[in-house]
Amino acid sequence: MIPRHEGTATARRFEAIELELPRAWLEPESEVERFELFRKLGQDEKRRILAYCTAMALRPKLAPASANDVTAFDLALIETGGRVEGYWRPTKANYLGRVTREQLLTIGEEVFGAGWAKDRRNDKKGKLAELLDAAFACPGAEGRTPEQVEKLTTWLPAGMSFSSGVEPQSAVAPWVKTGEKAA
What we know:
There is one protein chain. By secondary structure, the chain is mainly alpha-helical. Helix content is 46%, strand content 0%. The protein folds into two domains: 3-82, no CATH class; 96-154, no CATH class. The radius of gyration is 21 Å and the shape is elongated. The model is unreliable at 171-178 (pLDDT under 50).
């Protein structure tokens, strides 16, 4: 686990993933025995270990804009099933207070509809940031539609969502034919 992130949602998720990884191959004292046991693991088990190790070693970045931009971090996030919205939500301090008034109106329109933005077109930036901060903090508040609750729990700024439809290029080495195992 990453000690500098202890107690965060991310650290708890990584701890849970780590507990689900196969560990018996690590038990022998001999490196050769460990390696042989590792080699006997299934491809899915090896991929899970690789994805976990890669995710632990790399720094987060914005989501790829195209298939050519996909990195090992992106693949690790996909392999581990990580969802950014489960670890980060917009607040006034970390995002909403840092964007323009127009961007806040756009966010409100995306989440609550055009009527929300129209009704608040004369509000100051600080008021808009506070309203959206409260909404993201308590998405299931009374009076919200299921659609609004869904949007409040899943909305992310552009570049933070890894479900943008960008398909990663194959992670299989080009010299390995489909269905064959790499040596």
